[in-house]
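Sat 14:20. Reprocessing the chain from the morning session after the first attempt stalled halfway. Input below, unchanged.
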Amino acid sequence: AVIHNGIIENYLTLKNALMEGGHRFTSATDTEVLVHLIEESYKRYPHLEHAVRSALTKVVGAYAIVVMSQQEPDKLIAARKGSPLAIGVGNGEYIIASDASAIIEHTREIMYLDDEEIAVVTRSGVTVKTLDDVLVPKEVDEVLCDVQDIEKGHYAHFMLKEIHEQAETVEDAMRGRLLEIGGTSKLGGIESVLSKIDHARRIILTACGTSWHAALTGK
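Finished this time. Tokens:
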């Protein structure tokens, strides 16, 4: 069984190869391709972690996945590339989600996977490795935000809440970045490349949706 968030760009190529090998599909989704691909790898590597790792080396695209198998019921394999994935460390439990907001109600101790990392979750703990099977030491972060910050509260839906929060959101985004003396701003993230920006002949802003409007304002 697989839970998948993301898009497998080469799923049709993988699907055709799997069908030639005898696999039968019941949907047109790219997620089902992942299931069959891992199953095929499991035939050669009867170990869930190795099977998932082998399958993911063939995948092009973005994914945050959790995999489980009837053959190894006390184990979950989580992996990410391009799509976020967090693991909550609770009291005798582990919770896997795409964002801390889904976990904070149960625990504030959270670790985040980086791209092309795999987590093996068992009753005894969590082990994180790269796709190349190299052990990765992971720190557990404490999430400090309040639960009400990530819940919709009395609003009918999250979109409405976000609209009403715009004023304080803009204020929070500017806090510490606007210098009253001189009327300038301080953007710490670009200080190291200021000289390159100063000498740039052209600056390109790429965006879509709401960020497109932000890019137009920047222009």
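The first strand starts at residue 2 and ends at 8.
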